[in-house]
Amino acid sequence: MTLIIKGLAEKELVLISAFVAMFILIAVLYLFFVRAKNVYMDDNYLYVDNFFKIAKIPVSNIKSVSQLIMYPRFIFIVFKEKSEFGKRIIFIGYTEFFLFYSTHPAVHKLKSKIKTT
């Protein structure tokens, strides 16, 4: 009798573990991929697109720019004032092999824009 109960407990533990792992995976996918934006830039504005609307945000509103040095290249922009997409956005920078463990060119360009404004 104890073997059957023990077997059920192990199966339930596996199911619970699988559910927790799936929940964590969905949360990570949402945080990084669903929230990720398309970002374009000209001399004075960032154009942020979330596939439903496009926001035009002045470059002077950028407070800081940072990145994760791994694939995919997540780039984080923090604004001085809240934008249509909030105070912080995430986008994925293009990846090329030679960029591995170096600062992404988009981060360099945004940081130079911050210094000049």
Summarize the helices and strands and which ones pair or pack:
Layout: H1 2-34, E1 36-41, E2 45-49, E3 54-58, E4 62-67, E5 73-83, E6 86-93, H2 105-116
Parallel strand pairs: 1-6
Antiparallel strand pairs: 1-2, 2-3, 4-5, 5-6
Summarize the structure in short.
The chain is of the alpha+beta class and 117 residues long. Helix content is 38%, strand content 35%. It has two domains: 34 residues; 81 residues, PH-domain like, CATH 2.30.29.210.
Protein described:
The structure is a single chain. This protein is an alpha+beta fold. It has two domains: 1-34; 36-116, FACT complex subunit Spt16p/Cdc68p (PH-domain like), CATH 2.30.29.210. The chain contains two helices and six strands, in the order αββββββα. It has helices spanning 2-34, 105-116, and strands at 36-41, 45-49, 54-58, 62-67, 73-83, 86-93. Strands 3-2-1-6-5-4 form a six-stranded mixed sheet. Strand 2 and strand 3 form a beta hairpin. The radius of gyration is 21 Å and the shape is elongated.
